[in-house]
Amino acid sequence: MTTLIKNGTVVSTTGRHEADVLIDGEKIAAILQPGTSAAVSAESGAEKVIDAKGKYVVPGGIDCHTHMELPFGGTFASDTFEIGTRAAAWGGTTTIIDFAVQKYGENVRECLDSWFAKAEGECAIDYAFHMILGGVDDAALKEMDALVDEGITSFKLFMAYPGVFYSDDGQILKVMQKASENGAMICMHAENGIAIDVIAEQAASRGQTDPIYHGITRPPRLEGEATNRAIQLALVAGAPVYFVHLSASEALERVAEARNEGHNVYAETCPQYLYLNLEDHLGAPGFAGAGYVCSPPLRTKEHTHHKDLWRGLRTNDLAVVSTDHCPFCMKEQKELGLEDFRAIPNGIGGVEHRMDLIYQGVVMGELSLERWVETCSTTPARMFGLYPQKGVIAAGSDADIVLYNPSAKTHISVDTHHMSMDYSAYEGLDIDGHVDTVISRGKVLIEDNAYHGAKGDGRYLRRGLSSYLI
Ligand code: DUC
Ligand code: ZN
Ligand code: ZN
What we know:
This protein is an alpha/beta fold. The protein folds into 2 domains: about 120 residues, Urease, subunit C, domain 1, CATH 2.30.40; about 325 residues, Alpha-Beta Barrel (TIM Barrel), CATH 3.20.20.140. It has 15 helices and 19 strands.
C-alpha cells in the first residue's frame, strides 16, 4: 500500500517546510518538494492520497512513560493495553514505552514475561518496555545484562514507596554500577519516601485524611533532595540518570546544575504538572481531589505560577514530556481512600491528551512548534533507543505520522475520551488544535473522527541503547 500526504507543513526538530510525504508499506519512502509528487504519485500509483493542506505533518507521538494495568494499592490501573493504546492513538501517540514491574522476591524474567503476555496481540500502536526493579537483589542485578541484550535498555528505580517499590541508596548504587557497564539508562522516581511516610503518618494521626494531604505531605523539597542524592549516586557509579515525572522547581534546579556541569543527567515532566495544581485540583471539594492524587503530587499555585517547568522545557533541562499515564476510576478505585488519602491509588490518566496539551504550549508562546515535536516525539525516541526508526519523518523511518490541524479545536471530557476512566482530570478544557489523522506504520488509525485500527496492530519494539550515552 502506498500513501501520499500532500500539501502539508512537515515539522521536525530543526524547522518546518512545505513538503509531500510518500509512504510505501510500513515505511516512509520519500520526502518530496511540493509539486513534484504529482509525477511521483502517477509513477508509483499511490493508492491513497491525503490532503494535508493547512495541517502540520509531525512524527507520531512517543509516550515513554505509561502504566497499563499496573497493580497498585490493591487494584489495577484501569486501562488495559487494548483500551489504553487505542486512546493513545486517538491523541496522536503512535508508540508507548510501558513499565513492566518486578517487586521483592519476584523473578525479573517471570515479571517481564507476564508483561509481554498482557500486551501481546492487544495493542493498537507499537510498544516497548522499561523494567521497574522494585526488589533489587543479586538475581535482579544479574538479569539486567540479559534484558539489555533483548531490548529492555532502561530500568526504573523508586526512592519512594517504602515496602512496595522502594530501593535504598546501596541498591540504587548497585543498579547504577551495572548500568554503567551495560549501557542501560536509569529512570528515577525521586522522592524521599522514608521521610514522606513519616509526615503522612503524622498527618493521618491528626485526622488530616482528605486527598489534599497527599500533596501537603510530599513537600517539593523532598523531591529536590532525592534528585540531588540520585545525581550524586549516578556520578559515583558513572551512569546516566533520567528523572521521570519531575514536578518541583527544587528538583529542576538540581538537574539544571548537574547539566551545567556537563553531567549525563536528563529529565521529563508531565502535563499534569504544567496544568493542574494542589489547591484547585487536589483540594477540590469533597472527595473530588482523589482524582488528582498522583506521585509526585501536584504542586501549589505559587509553585506552578513561576512557570519553571515550561522554562525547563525550553532550555532542555526538561528534555521530554511523557504522561505517567496511570488511570483509576473514582468509583471503587480512588474510593479505596475515602477514609484515608494514603489508600487512594496514585495516578492520573492522560495518554490521550499529551499531544494536544503540549501543543497548547505552542499556542501560549511557551514552546516553538519544533520544540513540541522534539519533546513529544524525537527526544523520547533518541533517549530510549528507538531513533531513527521512530521519532522522525525521514526516508526509511517507520511511517508513524500525525496530521495536526491548528485551526480546529478539541474539547476534553469524560463524555468523549477513550480511556477507561469515569472522570477526566482535564474536564471541560477547550484546546486550540486537533489531532486530525493518525498513521501507524503506514496504516491509517484515525481519520474523519473515526478509528480504523484493530487490536493487535501494534508490535513490540526491541530498543537499542540511548542515543544520549556518551
Ligand atoms: N506515580 C503515580 O502517580 N502512579 C504510579 C506510580 C508513580 O510513580
Ligand atoms: Zn514514578
Ligand atoms: Zn510512573
